[in-house]
Automatic annotation (TrEMBL):
Superkingdom to which the source organism belongs: Eukaryota
Active-site residues annotated for this sequence: D39, D175
Binding site for substrate: S12, H70, G146, F147, G148, G149, G177, G197, S198
Pfam families: Ribul_P_3_epim
Catalytic reaction annotation: D-ribulose 5-phosphate = D-xylulose 5-phosphate
Residues reported to bind a divalent metal cation: H37, D39, H70, D175
Protein name: Ribulose-phosphate 3-epimerase
InterPro entries: Aldolase_TIM, Ribul_P_3_epim, Ribul_P_3_epim-like, RibuloseP-bd_barrel
Its EC number(s): 5.1.3.1
Keyword Isomerase attached: yes
Taxonomic lineage: Eukaryota, Fungi, Fungi incertae sedis, Zoopagomycota, Kickxellomycotina
Pathway: Carbohydrate degradation; pentose phosphate pathway; D-xylulose 5-phosphate from D-ribulose 5-phosphate (non-oxidative stage): step 1/1
C-alpha cells in the first residue's frame, strides 16, 4: 500500500549566496520550498568548510522556514545543543562520525528537534537500519558529501528501496546531484524528500525548478520499489 507521505523539496543554500542568506531563504520559502537545507561542514569530516550554529542563530529571526541542518562534522554530539539554541528544526548527523548514534538521536529529540541519520555512499545500509525506528528522517547521500554540483550516483537507490520496504512511513531524503530526472528516479525507489542545490539555484527560474522537482518526484513515487 502506498503510504501517506508528503513529497518535500529542500533547496540547499550551499548553492545560494551566503552574503544574502536570509534573502535566499525567504525566496525559497516563497517559491514553495518545504525545508531550507543547511550544509554544515567542518573541514575535518569532509574536505570543505561552510557554516556553523552561529549562522543559523543569526538567520533564525529572518525566516519562518524549516531549518533542516545537515551536519557533516566529526563528533556531532558536541554541537547538538548549539543547533537547538540557534533554532534548528531538524538535525541530521552522519553514522560514520559516531559510535553512539542512539544517544545522539535521544539528545536531538530531548531538545525538541527532529532527528535525521545519514550515511555516505560507501557505508552499507545495514549500518543504519537498527536506528531507523527512532529517527524522523533518514538521508541517503547520492554523492560523496563535501561539495555541491556533483553527479548523482544512481546505485544509491538500492539503499532507498531497502529502507522503504522496511519503513513505509519514514521520511527518506536524498541529497546530491538531484534535479527533476533524478527526483523521479529516487522517488520511484521510495524517496520522498529531495535536496537540490545546483538544480535550483543555478537556473534562471528557481521557482520553476522547485515545481518541476516536485512534479517529477510526485509522479514517480514508489513505482519501482
Ligand atoms: O550535502 C551536500 C553536499 O555534501 C549538499 O546538500 C548537496 O551536494 C546539494 O548540492 P547539489 O544539489 O548541487 O548536489
Ligand atoms: Fe546536504
Amino acid at each position: 500500500m502506498r503510504p501517506s507521505l508528503k513529497i518535500k523539496i529542500a533547496p540547499s543554500l550551499l548553492s545560494g549566496d551566503f552574503a544574502y542568506l536570509a534573502r535566499d531563504c525567504e525566496r525559497m520559502v516563497d517559491y514553495g520550498a518545504d525545508y531550507l537545507h543547511m550544509d554544515v561542514m567542518d573541514g575535518h569530516f569532509v574536505p570543505n568548510l561552510t557554516i556553523g550554529a552561529p549562522v543559523i542563530k543569526s538567520l533564525r529571526p529572518h525566516t519562518k522556514g524549516f531549518l533542516d541542518c545537515h551536519l557533516m562534522v566529526s563528533s556531532p554530539e558536541k554541537w547538538i545543543d548549539d543547533f537547538a539554541k540557534a533554532g534548528a528544526d531538524q538535525v541530521g548527523f552522519h553514522i560514520e562520525a559516531t559510535n553512539d548514534a542512539g544517544s545522539i538521536i535521544d539528545k536531538i529529540h530531548k531538545l525538541n528537534m527532529r532527528a535525521c541519520i545519514t550515511l555516505k555512499p560507501k557505508t552499507p545500509v545495514d549500518d543504519i537500519l537498527p536506528f531507523l525506528s527512532k529517527v524522523d528522517q533518514v538521508l541517503v547521500m547520492t554523492v560523496e558529501p563535501g561539495f555541491g554540483g556533483q553527479k548523482f550516483m544512481p546505485e544509491m537507490l538500492e539503499k532507498v528501496r531497502t529502507i522503504r520496504k522496511q519503513f513505509p512511513e519514514l521520511d527518506i531524503q536524498v541529497d546530491g546531484g538531484i534535479g527533476p530526472t533524478e527526483a523521479r528516479l529516487a522517488s520511484s525507489a521510495g524517496a520522498n524528500v529531495f535536496v537540490a542545490g545546483s538544480a535550483i539555484f543555478n537556473t534562471p527560474d528557481p521557482k520553476k525548478a522547485i515545481e518541476e522537482i516536485r512534479r517529477m518526484g510526485t509522479e514517480g513515487f514508489m513505482t519501482d520499489c
